[in-house]
Design goal:
single chain; mainly beta; nine-stranded antiparallel sheet; 3 helices; 21 strands; 6% helix
Length: 277
Amino acid sequence: MNAPFTPNRPPCTVLRHENRPVGTYIHRPQLAGTLAPRPYLHPVRTLGGITVTDLRTGGHPAAAQLGVSMAVPDVAGRNFGGGPSPVTTSTYGSQRHLGWLLRDPDGFVEELSWGAGGRQLLLERRTVAVRPLSAGCWALDFTTALTNVTGQDVSGAGGGFFWSAPRRPQPPRVFSAGGEGEAAVHGRAADWVALAAEDWTLVFAGATGETRSAPWYVRTGDQPGVGSVLAASDRPLTIAPADTVTRRIVTAIADGCLARDEAARIAGQLSDKGAAV
């Protein structure tokens, strides 16, 4: 059942796995403009009830950390990531919920407008779904399709899908099939990346070829998280008029700290190709 709106709580949708609440999607957030308001998922939980997202809206020099969201600091010179602007203009954008194309307990299809300064730049169709996996594990399937509606080229750089993980006394472990540790994973393309704490593990997989070719953004310090970069800051992505760019990330959410072979086995279930250990 979707949670009702109350004056103290933004409108939200509760996602369920076998009738068990596992995630809350805030689709009309009540945020300051400098945070680049956008829908986000928080909290997201393991089947055992452990929260694996974090919400931080102040006190950090980078973008606002809003659970699971799309945060792009530069789209046509507008900041859709929040925080200090990395671009020449100080105009912040927002992602505004337009409506539902589908809305069920295990997922939804949503349309959003990316706009700034009274101008719409992108129209997004976002698909989020809960997928069952093995016992003690489920997956969040997140697809974004961004269409340029301006009638001229639109360039974007930095950011993309980002999962803000909770802070713990000990930094989480991060690894992929190709290496272990932040230095070995950050800024590199990989079929999958795992972030593991003592009592939870997240396994992120690019579910399409284009998504797998993008580098991963990884932090394990006091602001831990994992993102799939939409476009590197030194290689902006240009979207031609009426063209659409699509990315799909599927994330397994598991209780416990998984070993590399188990994370690789799960990653093989998440995309359109298998995963190597």
